[in-house]
Structure formats: C-alpha cells, structure tokens
Design goal:
The structure is a homodimer of 343-residue chains.
Chain A (H helix, E strand, L loop, with lengths): L3 E9 L12 E9 L9 E9 L27 E11 L9 E7 L3 E4 L4 E3 L16 H13 L7 E4 L7 H10 L3 E6 L2 H10 L4 E4 L6 H8 L4 E6 L3 H8 L2 E9 L19 H4 L3 E4 L9 H13 L7 E5 L4 H10 L5 E5 L4
Helix pairs in contact in A: 1-2
Chain lengths: 343, 343
C-alpha cells in the first residue's frame, strides 16, 4: 500500500450570492494516497501554484444559466488553473516528474481522473507564469487582442481592469503594435504601475472619476478604436458613447457584474448602429490551437525583457480564500497567484 | 419668368420629446418656381412617393449625440427618402423627365441643390418600391443579412419588427437560403402576414406574450443562430439568453428606444461571452456600392414572384404626418409609404 499523507484543501462551504467572503470557504485537512488507481487514466499531482481568476466567481453560484463551465460543489475543494508536478501517472501523456499546468484542485495534492493538463513547455521562466502570462490569462490576452480586436498600428486602445492578469498583457501587446493605449484601474498604485512599469500612454483610477465619460473624452479626444472589455456595466456605457466609427469591443469579462443579483442595464447600445461597432464575446478555450504560435511570440519577448508580467503572490493554501475574494474588491496588484509548495 | 405653383409642405413644428404626435407637424402651402437657378447644380423634383422610416424619429430631436445624420429643422419641411420625377435640372447627371429616388422633401415639389439621388433603374415595377424593397430598406435588409449576419443554410433566424419595411425582406432572404425563420410583430394581422403571406416558419405577437423568453424558447428550442435586431430593449434581453454558441446579432435599429428620454437598460450582455456572440451595428450607407449586385439578385425574384413586398400606402401629403407617427405605434401593416402624386 502506498504512502498516505495529509492533504490541506480549500472547500466551498455554500453557494454564494453577492460579494464572496473568505468565510464562504474553509480550509480542512484530509488524507490522500499518493498513488493513481491502476488503469484509471488519472494523474496524481503535487500542486505548486494556484490561479485566482474572475471567472471563478460565477462558478460559486448554483444556477449559472447559459454558462460554459460547471458550478463548484459545496463540500468539495474548489478547482481552477494551476501548476503542478506529477507524482504518479496512469495516463500515457504524463509521467512521474513532469511539470504540468491546467485544471487542478485547491489542495496540496490532487488526484485528477480526467486530466485537462498541458506539459510545461519552458521551465526556464518562473513556473508561476503558467497561471498567468504563459497560461490561460496570457492566451486570453493574445486571442482577444489579435484575433477578436483586429488591431491596426496607430489605433486608440482602451483596456479596463488594465493591471489585471489579462489587461496588463493586452496593453503591452497594443504598445508593441504601435497603438495609443489607455487603461483604467481601481487604485493609485495600479495607475502608477500602468504608466510607469507597463508602458501605457495614459491611465486613470475609475474610482476617483466622478464622470467616466469625461475621463474617456480627456484620454481619447478623437474616440476609441478598440475597447478590451473586462468590467461591464457603467464603464461599458461610457465607452459606447466614445467609440469611433468602425470600432471593435472584445468582450473578455464583466467582473463588475459577477457579484450583482441582477446585472446593471447598459443603455447606450444604439451607438453600435451609428458608429458601426462590432462587439464580440470570446472564450480562450476556442483558441487553444494557437498556443504554440503564442509561445513562439511571447517567450522571446519575456526573455528579452520587452514584456513584463506583474504578479501578486499569496503564500500558502491558507491564504487562498482571501486571495480569491480579494480579486473582487481589487485588492491584488497584478495577476493573483497562490504559492502552495515548491517543487 | 417660370411658372409659380402652389406647393403643399409638411413642416416640423418643434423638436419632439417622447412619442411624436401628428400635431408636431403641420401642412402648409407656399409658392415655388418650377425652375432650377442657372449654374446651381440643382434639380427640381415633383415628388411621387415619400417614405416613412424609423430613423426619422431621432432626427426630430435637437441633440442627436453620436448620430450619423443631422436633425430636422423646425419651420422647414421634413425630408427623407422618396421617388420623384425631374422637372428641371442644372445637374449633368439628371435631365428633365428622369425618374429618381433618394433624399427629397416632404412637399409636392422640391428644389434639391445637393442631390443625393439615383436614377430609377427599372421602371417596370411599382415606383413606390424605390422607397422600400428597391430602396434604402431593401438594401438595408440585403447588406444586414448577407454581409453582417454571415448566414448559413439551415440556421435559426429571428427577426423583430418582422413585418416592417426591412424585416419582411430579411425573413424572405433567410427562407431562400434554407433557414428556419421566426418573426415577432405587434398585432394579429402582422403575425398572419408573416405566416401566411411572407413564408415565415413561425411568428408571434410580442404584445400578447407575457414572457418574451418563454416565447423564444417555444419557437427556438435549440436556440438562435442569427438575430436581426430592429427593436432593442426587452426583446434584445430575451434574445441574448437564447443565443446559440457562435451566434450573430446584426443591429439594424432599436425602434423601441427612440421615443424614450432614457433608453432601457440591457442586462444580459454577459451572454455575449459564454455564447461567443458577435453583435454588430451597421448603416446601409456603408454598402451603397453593392446596389447593382443587389438589383441583379432581387429583380428576378420580384418578377418571378419569389419575393413579395407588402406596402401600406397613405394617400396624399396631408396624410403624411399621421403615417409617420403611426410607425411608432405600429399602425402600419408592411412598409409605410405616402403617395403624393402620380407621374
């Protein structure tokens, strides 16, 4: 019989309504056998990094009508993207010692029976990057910007939640293409980050703008060609009245709406007509086939220092509930990661 | 000196807020010389048919922020699309006796100094068609459906304001392509028209549906691939929760919003993400270059009886204010035309 070890886990207590709280989750310890059942096709992972992402909020709700992913189950560990080391495998694609990224549990060790995992292709960058710039958020920024926004050199690009896991990359991609780039974020530190470290041309703190429309007119006197939408609600309404003819809105997320019982109404959609604007929602999972092309582009930029990536790392699984909840109050500065263990 | 004749005119009294009323306009009579000033590049038209179109409502408002077309001027005749005969011309493109369609005044005779007019290419169809199926609404349906919706055979297509000038054609185009087609309209007569004369697979009266979502689920158990949007507001919200993955929404108009001081909020835009929906506004004027191709397609269908066009004709310029106002209460059955004079 294989070794049994203790396994700390983050459990969802109950379905959540409104803003999630730390107490909607709890940390417990169970036992796990570090062995995959024979013939099961599964892998046994030691989790190294876990990712906190906005799409996890809707998963805390029971009935996610029209969703593309299932809800969490109260009483079971939360799951999401992470980076892990394979301790045992009955799956032909993975072997003991492999470093992998993809869907795993919020616990120290996970037995994954239907792996949605990829081998870590480059180990000479920080492993945590596979929860961010080299993982789902990185691919989201890449597919959303290059495939959905149809960007052209010199265009005026606006990004909301711009210092987040996805936004900070979209802004840097747009700068590489020679666009004029403005971001909004929710604190002075984030605005400083955008302007001084991430190379945005302008940035503003939406919480300190009494009139979002006025802020956008100030930053975009000629209007917006591309809006990379991460927040929804009032910001989208303000953007709609500042779009240029032929503008594009890539709808990546609407984080401002996820904690509301009834989403806010958006009032200015007639501008889609007068300005001939295309507004398009997308999911990164439709673009998985572009991952090799993405790596080819991004790895040299990372190594050459042309693209930077800002992470906010919480230490230890115990800090995971607060880290996840913090996303929705905007506490994180950059991509929110949880460091669970070292290799 | 040329003949002076009396010229009945429909004048906008004042800018309008809320629902327009007949009394927002008045009919008066002035005198006009049936002669174009030498060297003016103008044409003198005898108006035959005038078109009542939803986009005319925003033009009755003073400040149309973000609009693509100017407001009407109180005290002057309303203008819009029409069919006319050239009585005199100083413009090299038009000569006396030509039949033309395009922008003209709501009056018996119009002196047009900067013509936005086209020669009537086929005179062997009803001339009123150049306000509808062969004019701006026809081209709107053609460009909106074929160019914006990216339709495929067998797809499920929903059209709001489906018996109107544009909607009735979109539905017939979709049927020609082998789509499943459902329309909504605001009366039993309109629903009968859609099902019995225009070949729609299904139709419903939105005013008699207590729950628009339920009506859409009933008509589209598998969901909607293409929504041709003419109304906005609550209908759009109901459609959003019934879109299929990869669906498209062509935003042609939002007539339900034009008489409101503050447009209704649309709450279900997060569905754009989970269903990867593209929502795109368009203006027919961007597609003028396709008019010859459109005629090539539509004329044989009209002559062969494959496409029918339902008009609602008001007789005489005096009836024009009521006809225009009636658009916004849905009084018209089919394309609303005003017959001003015969050739």
């Amino acid at each position: 019989m294989a070794e049994m070890v203790s396994n700390k886990q983050v459990i969802l207590k109950n379905y959540v309504s409104g803003f999630p709280k730390e107490t909607d989750m709890y940390v417990t310890t169970s036992l796990i056998e570090l062995k995959v059942p024979k013939g099961s096709n599964g892998v046994l992972l030691k989790n190294l990094y876990l990712s906190c992402d906005p799409y996890m909020r809707p998963r805390m709700t029971k009935d996610m009508e029209g969703s593309y992913i299932e809800s969490f189950e109260p009483g079971l560990p939360i799951n999401g993207n992470g980076v892990a080391k394979v301790l045992d495998s009955e799956n032909p694609e993975f072997k003991k010692g492999d470093l992998v990224w993809g869907m795993t549990g919020w616990e120290e060790y996970s037995l994954i029976t239907a792996p949605y995992l990829f081998k870590v292709p480059h180990a000479d960058v920080p492993l945590s990057y596979y929860t961010g710039i080299l993982g789902m958020p990185g691919m989201t920024a890449y597919a959303g910007f290059y495939e959905v926004c149809s960007p052209k050199q010199g265009e005026c690009v606006f990004i909301s939640a711009a210092s987040g896991a996805v936004g900070q990359l979209v802004g840097q991609f747009a700068k590489l293409l020679g666009c004029y780039v403005v971001g909004s974020a929710g604190s002075k530190d984030k605005v400083d980050l955008l302007k001084n470290r991430l190379g945005f041309d302008e940035a503003f703190n939406y919480k300190e703008e009494p009139d979002l429309n006025a802020a956008l007119i100030r930053c975009f006197p000629e209007g917006i060609d591309i809006y990379f939408e991460n927040v929804g609600g009032k910001m989208l309404d303000a953007v709609l009245i500042n779009m240029k003819v032929g503008g594009r809105i890539a709808v990546c997320g609407m984080i401002s709406q996820y904690n509301l019982d009834e989403p806010e109404g958006v009032h200015n959609l007639t501008r889609l007509i007068s300005k001939r604007v295309r507004m398009e929602g997308f999911l990164v999972s439709d673009y998985n086939h572009l991952y090799p092309k993405f790596l080819e582009m991004i790895i040299p930029h990372i190594k050459g220092g042309k693209i930077v990536y800002v992470e906010d790392t919480a230490e230890g699984l115990e800090s995971a509930p607060a880290a996840l909840v913090g996303l929705f109050s905007g506490r994180n500065l950059g991509k929110q990661v949880v460091a669970v263990a070292s290799e």
